[in-house]
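Anyone? Bumping this.
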Amino acid sequence: MDKKKILIHPYIPNSVPEIKAEMLNVIGVKTIEELYEDIPEELRLKDEMNLPKPFPSEYDLSRHVEQILSKNQTCQENLSFLGGDCWQHYVPAICDEINQRSEFLTAYAGEPYEDHGRFQTLFEYASMMGELLEMDVVNVPTYDWGQAASTSIRMAARITGRTEILISKTISPDRLSIIQNYCKPTVTIKLVEYNTTTGNLDIDDLKTKISSKTAGVYFENPSYLGCIENQGQIISDVAHSHGALSLVGTDPISLGILVPPSNYGADIVCGDIQSLGMHMQFGGGLAGFIATRDEERYVMEYPSRLFGITTTAVEGEHGFGDVTYDRTSFHDRIEGKEFIGTATALWGITAGVYLALAGPQGMQELGKLVLQKSQYAMKKLSEVQGIKIQFSQSSHFKEFVVNLDGTGKTVKEVNKALLKKRIFGGKDISIEFSELGNCAVYCVTEIHKKEDIDRLVQALDECLNEGEKRR
Amino acid sequence: MNNQTRKKNFHQAKWDEPVIYELSNKGERGILFPEIEQEIEDIVGDGFSKLPTSMIRQKPPNLPEISQMRVLKHYLRLSQQTLGADFNVDIGQGTCTMKYSPKINEKLASSHKLIALHPAQDEDTVQGILEIIYKLDLFLREISGLDKFTFQPGGGGQAILAMASIIFAYHEANDVSEQRDEIITTMFSHPSDAAAPTVKGYKIINIYPNEDGLPDVEALEKAVSNHTAGLLITNPEDTGIFNPKIKEFNRIVHEAGGVCGYDQANANGILGITRAKEADFDLCFFNLHKTFSSPHGCGGPATGALGVIDKFIKYLPVPLVEFDEEKYYFNYSVSNTIGKIRSFYGVVPAILKAYSWIMSLGNVGLKEVSQIAVLNNNYLLKKILEIRGASAPYAKGRHRIEQVRYSWEELYNETGVTTEDITCRMADFGFHMWSSHHPFIVPQPFTLEPTESYSKAEIDEYIAGLKRVVEEAYENPELVKSAPHRSVVHKIDTDSLDDPTKWAITWRAYLKKNQK
């Protein structure tokens, strides 16, 4: 027996020595090394890569990875109220079934023939998003909301020929950071104040800052702070009266019950589809959408793939293909709009499945359910001694800001105490929004039962007021 | 096994599946959500009373109404009309590295221990996933020779944007960002190497290939100046030809004051053979959905894993994942950070899948991946050159690394059959054949990349398919030109897709424009 056993890895069929020899023979070389003739000696890696001993057996590999993953504590094992750009909603079983299908999972960039299903599902995704948003053009999804907002802004700059953008200060700080990098050095960003009582955009400040240089005004609804902005039309009117565009970021799952931004003057709408059937995946489930009216001057500024429906050589057959492919960087590497590449198509297909399952009634019922749950949570939390609901005059969808200034404890301390009770408290924003004090964004969705909310309230009461009661 | 016979009988699924709106029946339901608890309703009412009237949607969104099984069936049928890598000998989408994405990795990434994690959870509760992120960073450091990785970019394009942003921040720190306003790349590097830096305001200098298919040292010397911000380059390029002078390229750019970024989206032929470090690159990125086996997902979710040498760590997007010998944690203290490129920490499931893939192969396995990918490619090259009408421009008689850009120019001149026609006809046999990135410097181009995943028998099967189509092109060109015949649909009308009065990007736009 050979001392050294040759291991044929299951992922590499042509490692089989006889096959290898046969192929080398066809090529006309003796060793694989000869095929690397163009890589000079000085560029060769002399040492071995220092990688851990592998687990070629699938069982060992699985055991190894599962052991590491088991160190995680999840939102399934604990009760979570975390939100802020990533949300825990129910994911229908069929969403997972479809995005795990080998056909979709392992397809990539085929033609509208052999990849017809990819084109049709993404066209349908755009169609259903279009109805939710009441807009006629929706892109094949981009990386996330941050990218979608960044591109919306750059589109506005190109459409208006202007280079300044006004952004509501209530925006998610992470998203703002993405936008800042994406705009630098071409587009200047100015922040618009918000009312710390209502959470609404400060219209006076907007009017002071807007000018003939302004390409667009960007705000979010509901905002990162959870408030529903009811001055959408006013903001859009102010933008339009200065020749600027109205850009609105939104959470599409709220649109079963909330008026879509197109109805209050938005020209470009963007947001994240993670809530529509994607698991959170530690933030890996995000995907951004961009929507506009069907006007050439808008359509031609998208960097994204846009899939359209068309006819074929056979009467009555639906075909699909790229709309105005020439505007993309795939066609023109310099003059193409921004850039396009692999982003999040599979999540687009999945969001389509979600919307098809939910239907009009489902989206409406879900929206109502979330409203009721979050309102109940706000009411119960506000009854806990020391807790104040920030922006209580405003209305909310699934997120709201809890102010702990009256408790004498920081969000961090409270969340640590909650963690001991297997509860993940709201996202700490006391550094991001220091002007609001000691605050956290809580998120309540359809997955929270009354008993879950009651458990949170009781746990908070115990964390905050236990000592007092004992006294 | 008789491959010829099998191909003859191929027909892709064709369900004539309507557009989803055509399946709608008023009142049908696809899923029900929980009922509200009576106690909650008693306290808060219907929830709407708290909303400003102007913000309440009066008419529910016009979504289709379809029962659950019919929705499932619709999507399953459409899935059957999509040719994933799991179904075909997917060597026809060259540059895309359509390798096997192991199912075990899918299973692991579907664990609730990953999917049910919120990115803002307490660090103590996510030690497992942080460990995986950190260790994949360590692995890629070994594979590239660079010093620190971030997984934030959600694809190759975003990784290139991040590289351009780092280059900008670096020159800004030296107060020369306005002067250094040019990025140099090559025509056979990915289009995003030119397109993404334009977002950062850069002018682009594209270096064309010389007669050997390689960018010229002289051309580069002419291109550099005190305006040079950096170089973004692929190697091997889309041609599969390795540029042996790459180190000299980097020296020239460094001497001009530029930063050198390596587009290693596809590094499938050189794992453990040569690295960014040995060639003196400052930055590099790997696509985890290409070389490192995470599936392509119809075009994402994906990851462009971005690595830098020490000097550039301070510019990386935040947070970085670190380890203090006891605990994994997020580090937001990065002095000159470009901020954020993508929300949170990137496409975490792709990170897990790449980790798992590397842990299955190890040092020896990774090298074997590359060596077999290169073996397969040169075998394929040999066989393709035997096909009438096909050629492989540049580097005649030399071997290639992991892919080859071929040409059907001769076939086109002799038959009038184009690359696009052949692509459509290959679909009739269950194969992809991709043309190439624009612009088509190689006339009638096609790019093949066999990776390590396909057996010799499968590669032979693909070659037999190509041969057959070429025979048809010479004998009955009309058959090829009117293809596909056995795919899901027939030749599409593309004119309407470029006509603003006709294009329809959503069903509602389609109905409006077709007055239905």
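Late reply, but here is one note on the structure posted above: The two ends of chain A are 80 Å apart (CA to CA).
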